[in-house]
Amino acid sequence: VDYREATGEQSLWTNSMFGGMPSYLISTVFEGNLLRYVDKFLGFAQHPASLIFITLLGFYVLLLVLGVNPWLAIVGAFAYGLSSYFFIIITAGHNAKIHAIAYVAPMIAGLVLAYRGKILGGLALFALFLGLNLNAGHVQITYYAGFVMVALFFAYLYKALKENLMPQFAKASIALGIAAILAVGANFSRLYFTYDYGKDSIRGPSELTADAHNKTSGLDKDYATAWSYGVGETFNLLVPNLYGGSSMSDLGTESHTYNFLMQNNVPPSQARAIVQQMPAYWGPQPMTSGPVYIGAIVVFLFIFGLMFVKGPEKWAILIVTLIGIALAWGKNMMWFTDLFLHYFPGYNKFRTVSMILYIAELTMPLLAFIALKRVFDGDFSKTDFRKAFFWALGITGGICLFLLLFGGSAMSFSAEVDAQYIAAGWPRELFDAVAADRAALMKADALRSLMYILLGGGVVFAFVEKKLKPVVFIGALGFLIIADMWVINRRYLNNEHFVDVSRVEKPFPKTAADEQILTDKSLNYRVFNLTVSPFNDASTSYYHKSIGGYHGAKLRRYQDVIDLHISRGNMKVLNMLNTKYFIEQGQAGPVAKLNTEALGNAWFVDSVSIQPNADAEVDALGEFNPATTALVDKRFESFIADFTPAADSSASIQLVEYYPNRLVYSSKSSVNQLAVFSEIYYDKGWKAYIDGVEAPHFRANYILRAMAIPAGEHKVEFEFKPAMFAVGKAVDLASSLLIILLFVGWAGFGAYKEFVAKK
Question: For position 212, what pLDDT does the model report?
Answer without folding.
Answer: 82
